[in-house]
Amino acid sequence: MRVAARGFTLIEMLVTVVILAVLASVLVLSVGAGDEEQRLRREVERLQARIVYACERAELTGREVGLHLRAGGYAFSAMQGEGWRFIEDDPALKRTQLATSITLSADDEALVESFAEQPQLLCFASGEATPLTIELAAGPRASHWRIDIAFDGHTRLQQRNIDDRDWRAVERGRR
Predict the structure, then answer these.
(1) What is the pLDDT of residue 4?
(2) d(CA 137, CA 8)
(3) 170 in Cβ contact with 163 (< 8 Å)
């Protein structure tokens, strides 16, 4: 009479390890996509807040403030006697380099690698601004975000998911 051995066979253990590996990879991929989306949202909200701050600074100081956009980053400048100078003394308006996964466009046009001589957005001392639409995206699976700046200086934040055709408002205008 032979007694049956207890325990797991090698095949059963290998199947269990493969199932756990597949589940772990699915979990890592889903968490990674969420991080990318959160990073993009934080960057969009930060840029919107900086634009509002720059326009308020223009009103308070009586000097125009400009926003220069380029592929991969942005910077704010102030009008000096001879032209535009980047703002270096205010940490909130310092030059910003975006993560490599984030793409930036303005008024549906791709941006070049270097800063333009003239800013794409002007905040005037009167409280008005040049209208501009800034769009940010991160990766092929992330949603797209848009900051609309109106003539009166108000900003509006909108989002469009990959499967959506229309933009939806995320919040009411700021200013």
Answers:
(1) 64
(2) 49
(3) no
- pLDDT (0 to 100) of residue 5: 65
Average pLDDT, the chain: 85
Q: How far apart are CA 135 and CA 109, in angstroms?
A: 10
DSSP assignment string, 55-76: HHHHHHHTS-EEEEEETTEEEE
How does strand 83-86 pair with strand 73-80?
Answer: antiparallel
Give the chain's domains with CATH numbers.
10-174 (3.55.40.10)
pLDDT over 80 (residue 108) = no
Burial 125-134 (b: 16+ CB within 10 A, else e): beebbbebeb
Residue 51's closest CA among 129, 109, 117? Answer: 129
Strands 144-149 and 73-80: unpaired
